[in-house]
Every structure is written in C-alpha cells, then in structure tokens.
Amino acid sequence: MAFPDFPFSSHNNNNSSFLTHAQVLSYLKDYAANILQYIQACKQMKLIWDSVFGRGF
Questions:
Q1: Exposed/middle/buried for 29, CB within 10 Å: 0-12, 13-18, 19+?
Q2: What are phi and psi of 16, to 5 degrees?
Q3: 53 or 4, which is more confident
Q4: Residue 32: strand, helix, or coil
Q5: Best CA proximity match to 42, nearest among 4, 10, 8, 1
Q6: What pLDDT band is residue 54 in, cutting at 50, 70 and 90?
Q7: Using an 8 Å Cβ cutoff, are 49 and 57 in contact?
Q8: What's the whole-model pTM score?
Q9: DSSP-derived 3-state class of residue 25
C-alpha cells in the first residue's frame, strides 16, 4: 500500500510556500482512505489467522 506523496507547493508553478486548503483536504482524504483500507486488510488477516490458528491471539 502506497501513501500519496504530500503535495508540496514547491512542485507547482506558483512561488507560494504554503499548501492550498484544497490540496490539504485532498491529501487528508487520500490518506484517510488508505488508513481505512489498511485497517480493513488487517481485520481480514486477523479473521484468516483466527480461522487457521484458533483465537489464541
């Protein structure tokens, strides 16, 4: 799973050193989506682990 690169404004054409509000929101949305996917994957792995090895962990 790859997290998105943080969108620093220096990569854009403007000379502003600050992120725009939209860039920050977009990044946080992508980041949150990745976190949720990761949590879901962990839950799936735990279910598989429990079914194979029992619920000792």
A1: exposed
A2: -65, 140
A3: 53
A4: helix
A5: 1
A6: confident
A7: yes
A8: 0.50
A9: helix
Distance CA 20, CA 12 (A): 11
The structure tokens listed for 31 are 């980041």
Query: Could you tell me the residue ranges of all domains in the chain?
Result: 21-57
Question: What is the signed CA dihedral for 6, 7, 10, 14, rounded to 10 degrees?
Answer: -160
Nearest Cα to Cα of residue 21 among 9, 32, 3: 9
For residue range 3-50, list pLDDT tens digits in order: 566 555 445 555 455 778 889 999 999 999 999 999 999 999 999 999
Question: Tell me, what's the pLDDT at 36?
Answer: 96
The answer to whether the beta carbons of residues 28 and 19 sit under 8 Å apart is: no
Q: State both tokens at 53.
A: 């090895």
